[in-house]
Amino acid sequence: MTDFRTTNRISRAAAVDSLRRGRKSGKGALALLLLSTAISGCSTLGSSGPDARAIRGADSEQVAGADIHVIDLTDEVTRSLIDHSRTPGFLEVFGDGKPVGAQIGQGDVLDVTIWEAPPAALFGMFGGEPAVVESTALETARRTDMPQQMIDSSGMLSLPFVGTIRAAGRTPRQLEAEIAARLRGIANKPQVSVGILRNATSNVTVVGKVAINGRVPLTPRGERLLDVLAVSGGVVEKLERTTIQITRGPSVVAMPVEAVIRDPRQNIRLQPDDVVTAIYQPFSFTAIGAVGTPSEIDFEATGLTLSQALGRIGGVQDNRADVKGVFLFRLEDPANLDPALVVSKSLTPEGKLPVIYRVDLSDPRSFFLAQSFDVRNRDILYVSNAPGVDIQKFVTIISQTAFSLIGISNAVTGN
Length: 415
Known about the structure:
The chain has a 6-stranded mixed sheet with strand order 3-20-19-22-16-17. Strands 4, 5, 6, 7 and 10 form a 5-stranded antiparallel sheet that branches. It has 12 helices and 22 strands. By secondary structure, the protein is an alpha+beta fold.
């Protein structure tokens, strides 16, 4: 092919030389320069991406070993996506749960108090204080507060005159009964009280966009998700832009805070070792092509529809956009699609199907569909140029060049 830059450079030099020799030759140079500029301009017209025809022709092409699937957005497709893409919430995955029993665990610190009826000689060496207890008659009893007791790594507790007792996995009431039973015969009418001073096992970890990051202890009251968030000072960002994620073992589920508030069933009881993470505005999509504002747009946890997305980018450029060429690129979960649409299609190594959804904005019905079609995290919204845009660009280049050269020619011949 001809080197257009070389042709353009030679033609311009020849034109300038002709202009210097006279008006007649100037007209020829002007024509030559216009021709070379036109040829050069044809090879350098810019574009923001492929046209609609090229994208529609990508159906069954491959990327990352997976087949690209182009789907026209229709009412049936939209309803299928809504039906198949509903994500389960906290209640559906974890259940409501039961209040955590006051079970003792490894690392817990216990407060143990022992009462003895007179003469209360067994624990007198620990500096017990007199206390009044009620029985058939008022008797002066002696109370002994044992030093704080930490359950060791094997779950055992050791007390004077009692010996070693397994404490982990038992409730304070069960531990009280066994300690009292072991003291009978060596202490006079022993009474025992056991309390959990510091809980090292039944805790929930709260991190992210909350006022106080840390561990929140669970009690037999049965703390729920919103209770724990309140203890942590609440979320520090706007509720509508915050997502709550619960991690329990291998399961991870996320929901908008507003969705939990609107549906009290999702305000589940938390369990020991749950991790609650508050995430601010975790979602975004990218808009490119003939749109009002090409950019990456963050959106709130409550979700965003296609109609809202088009509004946030200032709509499409009516002087450039192909209203029949609005496309949304997504790595789709095959489970969200009608099985008939994905049969025999190759998937990416991550098990996703590259899907391009095509929206025809020349059809009034598409605006209703856009109100139900959800944009998802990392989607790409692309609006192609109209077919006549390249011709318009070419004519504009020719017109601008012609007016410039006519001005130069008039200036040269007028001297």
